[in-house]
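Technical appendix A lists one of the benchmark inputs used to test multi-chain prediction within the project. The record comprises two sequence entries:
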Amino acid sequence: MIPSRTELKRVAPGGLDVERIRADFPILKLRVNGKPLVYLDNAASSQMPQPVLDRWIRYLTTQHSNIHRAVHYLSETATAEYEAARRKLAAFINAGDEREVIFTTGTTDAINLVAHGYGRKFVGAGDEIVLTTLEHHSNIVPWQMVAEEKDARIRVVPVNDRGELIFEEYLKLLGPRTRLVAVGHVSNALGTINPVREMIAAAHGQGIPVLVDGAQAAPHMQLDMRALDCDFYAFSGHKMFGPTGIGVLYGKSAWLEKMQPYKGGGDMILSVTFEKTVYNVIPGKFEAGTPPIAAAITLAAAADYVTGIGIEQIHAHETDLLDYATDQVNRLPGVRIVGTAEKKAAVLSFVVDGVHPHDVGTLLNEEGVAVRTGHHCAQPVMQRFGIPATSRASFAFYNTHAEVDALVAGIRKVQKVFR
Amino acid sequence: MADTKQLYQEVILDHNRKPRNWGMLADATHRAEGHNPLCGDHLTLTLRLRDEAVDAVQFQGESCAICKASASMMTVAVSGKSRDDAERLVQEFRDLATGKLDAAGPHHLGRLTVFAGMRDLPTRVKCAILPWHTLHAALNEEASTTTEAEADPMHAPIIGGAG
C-alpha cells in the first residue's frame, strides 16, 4: 500500500516513525522554562519508554520476592523472571553462554569487578595495563588503583586531532608485560567509535585479554560478543532506555572461573563454615547479596524495546541526525566541533568562542534544551584538546531534526547574549 | 524557575568582557588558587595587605562568565576595605548566592546583588562563590581552595574571619 502524504511526512529519513516512538516516552512531553523539552543529554542518561516502565510496575505488583531463596510461588516466579532476563540479555549481546552475563549495578561496578577479580589476581609488579586517552574516568581510576597497589604501569594510547586512536601507537604499546587492554567502544566525550575488533585481534595475537567499556555503544549499535571476541564487556541499563542501578558485565567463562570474587555475601557461596567457604559457580560467584531484581528484569524489557525498533533502523536515524546536526553547527561562525572522527556515534561536542560551556548550558536550558556541559568525566580528553570543557549534545532514536534546529537556535541566542 | 536573562544582565556581561583588576600583583603579600573541579573553573588571586586593609587585589584564570564577573566585581568591592570588612562581604555574598540573605534586607553588597538569581541555579552557585572562597583562603594564608568536599559552599561553614 502506498502511504499517504501525511504518513510520509511523519517518517524520518532513517525510516523510523519518530512521532509514534516519541509517544512511548512520557517524559518527552515535559515543558521546561515554558518551552518543549529538547532532551539532548542521552549519553549521560537516556529516557524510559512506557512498555519498559510497565514492566517495572508489573514485576513489583505481581511477581516480586527475593530470588534463589524460598520455595514459595513468588520467589520461584521472581527467580524465573530474573534468570529469563539474563538469558534475554545474553541473546541481546550474542554471548555464547548465559552464565557469562553477570548483573552489576552499572558499567563502573562492572569495570571495578574486573579490576578486582582479574587485576588484583593477574597483574604484578612491572606489568602493564593499556588504556586510551579517550577513556571515561570509570575506565581509568580502577586501573590506577590496581597499578598503584601492584606497582604496575599504565600505558596510554594517544589520539590524533580528530579524536581517533592512533593504531600504530597502540600496537607499539602491546608487549610481554601487558596484562590487559581496557578500551571504550565509543568515546562519551567525542563520540569516536574505536576499532575495538581490530584492537582485540591484535591483543589476542600476543595472548592479552581485552575489556571493552560499552556504556556508550549499547544504545547505538549491535553488540555481538562472539564476533568481537572480547574477554570482558561492560554496559549500563540507564544509557540504553532502562533503569539506573543495573548494568551488565559480560566475561568469558574461562576468565570468570579463574577470577576471585569481588564482593562477599549471600548467593555467591556454595557452603560456608568458619573454617572454609566454597564459592558459587559463575555467574552467582559475582552476584553477592540480593541483586537489583526489578531493574534487571526491566533492563531486559528495554533490550526488547530496542530490538523491536531495530538496531539498523536506530543506526540509520541517528546517523542522519548526527550528519544534520554536524552540518548545521558547522555553519555557525565562532562554533567549533571537538571530535571529528570518521566513525562517530551520535555525540556532538562543541565549544563556542568566548563563551564558557557552563554559560552555554545555562542559556540553552532557558530554551528548554538539555545538553551536558563540562569535562564529561574524561579530563584526559579535555587536556588533549587543550580545553577545560565542552558542551555536548548527544542523540537518541527519539530525537528529531526539529530538536537539532532548537539546539542551533539556542546557540545563536547564546552568541547574541555574549556578543 | 530562574530567569537567566536576568542573571546574564549587562553588568555581569560587561565584567566578563572587561574584567577589572586582571593580572598578578608582583608585590603580593597574600595569594591563593581557587579551583572548581566539576567545571574546571580556575583562578589565581593575589592581594597586598597594608595596615590590615586590602591595598590592592588582582586575579586571573580561566572560568565561566559568572565566575569571572563575580571575581571582577569582588576585586572592585574589596579594594581599600579592611580585612574584617572584606571577610564580612565574603560571608554576605555567600549567603546571598545560597539564598540565605535577602537582597532587600540590610547588607553591604551594593551592586553585587545582581548575583541574587544564583539561588535558583544550584548547579551554578559554586561558579559565583569560587572567587570569594579564594579571597577568604588568601586572607587566611591558605594556598588553595576548592568548591568541593569540606569546602563545599553549600554546606561548609566559613572558618575564621568575620563569619
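Chain A touches chain B at residues 33, 355-359, 362-363, 365-366, 373-375, 382, 388-389, 417-418 (CB under 8 Å). The CA atoms of residues 262 and 307 of chain A lie 32 Å apart. Comparable benchmark entries are summarised in Table A2.
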